[in-house]
Backbone:
């Protein structure tokens, strides 16, 4: 090949004398090595030389084509005749040319060539031949052709779709408009100058500036696409609405737009329809909305906005505008209805509230219709908005009214002029024994007893006589024939023209009311009675107080002269007034005994009064029974001596300490023994003994050798103010209070009293006292409460202490004695605190309050107020009918715990 | 020298009989028939060794008399024995709290009264 080239170089070189040998040589190498096809012909277009590139592209060998005209065998029927003609013309004229031409190869393959043909000139300028450089551009051309075909098709579509197109060279202002663009405005294609001025001349003046703004926005990259709906002037003067949209497709290096293309879509019809609708809408107060679900844009018509008090430009056309104005309470409902519409195609129609510019919410009725794509996704939704605020408000207030009527306890009837019930509320149905809804359509007369009809008529005739509707009481008959007392308010019903269209009757069942009134009346009476009772109670309390004070005063007044009598008797008997004879001494002794008896009576009387008034203070402590006996011995011995009766005392060994009020026990013994002395014959014996009973209690017995009691007398024994008839001892006097007092005092000391008696042999009075052991005391306390039949209520237990009274534990005992009832029991522990058991009680808290105030009062009344700090803790409170065992164990647990702590 | 007892009681017959009893026992007695007279007697006459005092009296009652006695240094140390027909515990407590030596009830036991007076005077002996 190099040889060949060099040979050819020489050949060519001889013909290209104007060029240096070296230059030709280089060209030859390029021609030899290039992938392009290179052909050299003579001036008659006969091939002198072809390179390897030629063979590769065409398939023809060098030797096959020598002397041939390339056009003859390379061109094919599809080769563009225009191009071939242009090419031969150029060659014939001795000119160069460059063409793109479809050729065929040796195997018939078609290929596109870019052919550059240049003449070869000699020194004199004569054409000696031609050189053609051909490069294959098949891929390129085919792509271009495809593109052209696509564009052609597109244009067909555009034209067919009524789209006007424009292609704008921005720097020059040159615009290519298509035919449709021109026709849209009533012009022929040729009549429209290809300049942006053509558009500017036809655009509606009002739309020019917004259009330019939209363009600028696009040019500055703020919008991806230019889209603007605007008006253009038709040749005939009418308005054409176009949706103009386009895009810059060529930018310069500085990002300035160079070329932009776009389309015009004639939307006049839609626009007019919309405007017509809008016009109609304005008239009927309907606003329009159109929501593009994907983009979120929402067209809101000016009317829509004005319904909410806004100018068109004040609200943005977007979905958010709507959500922002929607009443929060209505949002969920909207979403539900929309969802149902989107998914199940249930009509979108509902009432909701939107916020007016003034701030208040107004009611609107909304209808809408979505557009779905093939797979059922909603794309768009449009609809109307109607102001129904007035109607809705009315509806709501009517609804309220209706619900009042529905819910009214009174029967409410609407009756036509013919007397037919039109509406009856549920209460009416119930009142007259009908099922709800059954009354409507019936004659009202079925509800009116025969004998009430005339008066009913009279009452109805009074309607309108005054501004107040007549109210009257009458009777109505139920479906079951039973009559009810009713109170009726009747009024006219007017139609919208103000004419009377019927009657409304509100009927109240006053059988009930009468009962209620009666009930209220009796309540009032009860309250009055209560007040009266409270008053009486107070009076009774006062009277009881007075009575007690009276007894107190009387006993006091009795005592003084008694003392005088007794004391003078005593000094005479003692001989302080001179010698006394034996006879005188005897008589004086009689006076003395009588005085003592009288004094006992006075004391019994006072004690009895105290016991009855619950004023007796009981101060129970651990007591040695021997000490009690010591306290009564002297007095009893004197009494016994006076009647010459022997007194014997027996105390068993190892008796436990008892829990008792020492003074009260002394009184019991005194009373029982005095009684025994009274009824014992002279010279007999009275024995006072103390033993342990098998219950564990200490038992004190007073045994006499008197006349004894019959079985029937025993039953009457302890009855107050009863003294047994006693023929044997006419000298015995007394109110019979002694035994009774003894019995009560025993009871207060948690003991039991009993009597054994044999007529003619004597009597034995026994009473018990509990040993000072918590278990037994608590048991006795509970037993005693159980015995009293008329004590409902509860047991209470309190823990009471005085913060600053450690030095004087008896102070608490004393205060408790003053503040508590005789039946209440307090157990003192070693720390000087007390466990107070009490009952019956109602509210334990109330009791605590009372206790506190009494403590306080008692303290402030004492000569040396301690201002002690009372500490009261509730241990518990139990029903002593059902919770006795719980109470017992709780109390004992508490007491024992305290002991251990102590 | 016999111990002097001042008896203050509005019931003259009782003062008289108690006076006879006490004199028979060896006391000297002075009788005042109401509270203020008692106070006057206690301050004007030689200081008594003990006072027997009634509670219910028309002008000053026994508690008030006692209070005056206790607040006067001259008479503050005289033991006071109440003798009252008022048998209420509260009265007794009040009297003891107010510094009385004893509270005895009417009708009284003469032996008890005499013994109490002796005890009271005896109790004061060391300081005399």
Residues:
């Amino acid at each position: 090949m190099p040889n060949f080239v060099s040979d050819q170089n020489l050949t060519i070189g001889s013909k290209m004398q104007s060029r240096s040998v070296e230059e030709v040589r280089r060209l030859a190498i390029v021609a030899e090595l290039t992938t392009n096809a290179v052909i050299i012909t003579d001036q008659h277009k006969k091939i002198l030389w072809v390179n390897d590139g030629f063979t590769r592209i065409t398939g023809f060998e060098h030797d096959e084509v020598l002397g041939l005209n390339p056009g003859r065998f390379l061109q094919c029927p599809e080769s563009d005749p225009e191009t071939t003609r242009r090419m031969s013309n150029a060659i014939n004229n001795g000119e160069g040319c460059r063409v793109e031409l479809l050729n065929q190869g040796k195997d018939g393959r078609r290929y596109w060539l870019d052919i550059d043909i240049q003449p070869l000139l000699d020194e004199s300028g004569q054409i000696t031949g031609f050189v053609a450089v051909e490069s294959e551009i098949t891929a390129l051309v085919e792509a271009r052709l495809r593109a052209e075909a696509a564009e052609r098709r597109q244009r067909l579509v555009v034209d067919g779709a009524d789209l006007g197109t424009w292609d704008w060279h921005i720097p020059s202002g040159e615009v290519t408009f298509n035919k449709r663009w021109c026709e849209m405005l009533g012009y022929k294609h040729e009549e429209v100058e290809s300049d942006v001025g053509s558009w500017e001349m036809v655009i509606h003046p009002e739309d020019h500036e917004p259009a330019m703004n939209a363009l600028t926005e696009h040019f500055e990259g703020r919008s991806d696409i230019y889209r603007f709906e605007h008006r253009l002037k038709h040749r005939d003067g009418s308005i054409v609405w176009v949706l103009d949209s386009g895009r810059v497709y060529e930018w310069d290096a500085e990002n300035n737009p160079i070329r932009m293309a776009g389309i015009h879509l004639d939307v006049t019809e839609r626009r007019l329809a919309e405007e017509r609708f809008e016009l109609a809408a304005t008239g009927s107060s309907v606003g329009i909305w159109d929501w593009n679900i994907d983009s979120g844009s929402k067209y809101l018509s000016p009317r829509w906005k004005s319904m909410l008090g806004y100018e068109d430009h004040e609200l943005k056309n977007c979905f958010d505008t709507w959500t922002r104005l929607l009443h929060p309470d209505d949002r969920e409902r909207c979403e539900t209805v929309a969802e149902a519409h989107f998914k199940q195609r249930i009509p979108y129609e509902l009432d909701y509230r939107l916020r007016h510019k003034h701030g208040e919410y107004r009611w609107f009725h909304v209808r809408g219709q979505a557009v779905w794509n093939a797979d059922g996704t909603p794309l768009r939704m449009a609809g109307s908005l109607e102001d129904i605020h007035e109607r809705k408000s009315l509806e709501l207030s009517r609804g309220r009214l209706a619900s009042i009527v529905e819910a009214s306890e009174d029967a409410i009837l609407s009756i036509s002029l013919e007397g037919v019930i039109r509406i009856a509320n549920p209460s009416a149905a119930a009142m007259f024994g009908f099922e709800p809804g059954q009354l409507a359509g019936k004659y009202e007369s079925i509800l009116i007893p025969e004998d009430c009809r005339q008066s009913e008529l009279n009452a109805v005739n009074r309607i309108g006589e005054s501004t107040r509707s007549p109210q009257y009481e009458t009777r109505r008959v139920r479906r079951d024939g039973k009559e009810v007392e009713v109170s009726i308010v009747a009024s006219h019903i007017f139609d919208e023209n103000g004419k009377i269209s019927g009657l409304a009757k509100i009927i109240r069942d006053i059988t009930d009311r009468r009962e209620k009134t009666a009930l209220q009346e009796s309540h009032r009476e009860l309250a009055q009675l209560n007040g009266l009772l409270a008053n009486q109670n107070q009076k009774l309390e006062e009277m009881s107080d007075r009575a007690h004070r009276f007894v107190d005063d009387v006993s006091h007044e009795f005592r003084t002269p008694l003392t005088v009598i007794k004391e003078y008797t005593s000094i005479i008997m003692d001989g302080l007034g001179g010698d006394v004879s034996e006879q005188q001494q005897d008589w004086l002794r009689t006076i003395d005994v009588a005085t003592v008896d009288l004094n006992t009576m006075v004391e019994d009387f006072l004690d009895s009064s105290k016991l009855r008034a619950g004023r007796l203070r009981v101060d129970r402590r651990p007591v040695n029974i021997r000490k009690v006996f010591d306290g009564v011995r002297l007095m009893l011995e004197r009494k016994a001596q006076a009647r010459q009766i022997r007194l014997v005392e027996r105390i068993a060994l190892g008796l436990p300490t008892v829990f008792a009020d020492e003074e009260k026990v002394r009184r019991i013994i005194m009373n029982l023994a005095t009684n025994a002395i009274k009824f014992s014959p002279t010279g007999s014996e009275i024995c006072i003994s103390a033993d342990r009973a098998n219950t564990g209690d200490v038992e004190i017995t007073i045994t006499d050798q008197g006349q004894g009691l019959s079985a029937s007398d025993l039953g009457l024994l302890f009855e107050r103010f009863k003294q047994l008839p006693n023929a044997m001892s006419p000298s015995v006097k007394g109110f019979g209070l002694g035994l009774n007092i003894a019995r009560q005092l025993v009871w207060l000391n948690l003991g039991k009293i009993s009597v054994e008696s044999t007529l003619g042999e004597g009597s034995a009075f026994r009473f018990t006292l509990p040993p000072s052991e918590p278990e037994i005391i608590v048991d006795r306390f509970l037993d005693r409460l159980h015995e009293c039949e008329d004590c409902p209520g509860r047991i209470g237990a309190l823990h009471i202490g005085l913060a600053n009274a450690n030095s004087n534990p008896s102070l608490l005992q004393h205060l408790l004695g003053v503040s508590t009832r005789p039946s209440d029991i307090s157990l003192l522990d070693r720390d000087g605190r007390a466990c107070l058991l009490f009952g019956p009680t109602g509210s334990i808290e109330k009791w605590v309050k009372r206790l506190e105030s009494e403590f306080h009062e008692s303290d402030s009344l004492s000569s040396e107020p301690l201002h002690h700090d009372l500490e009261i803790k509730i241990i518990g409170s139990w029903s002593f009918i059902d919770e006795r065992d719980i109470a017992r164990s709780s109390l004992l647990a508490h007491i024992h715990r305290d002991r251990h702590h102590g | 020298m016999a111990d002097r007892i001042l008896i203050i009681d509005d019931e003259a017959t009782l003062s008289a009989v108690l006076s006879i009893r006490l004199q028979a026992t060896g006391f000297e007695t002075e009788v005042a028939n109401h509270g203020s007279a008692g106070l006057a007697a206690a301050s004007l006459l030689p200081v008594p060794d003990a006072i027997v005092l009634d509670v219910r009296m028309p002008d000053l009652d026994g508690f008030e008399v006692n209070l005056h006695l206790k607040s006067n240094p001259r008479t503050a140390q005289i033991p006071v024995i109440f003798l009252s027909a008022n048998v209420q515990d509260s009265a007794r407590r009040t009297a003891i709290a107010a510094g009385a030596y004893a509270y005895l009830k009417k009708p009284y036991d003469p032996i008890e009264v005499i013994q109490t007076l002796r005890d009271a005077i005896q109790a004061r002996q060391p300081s005399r």
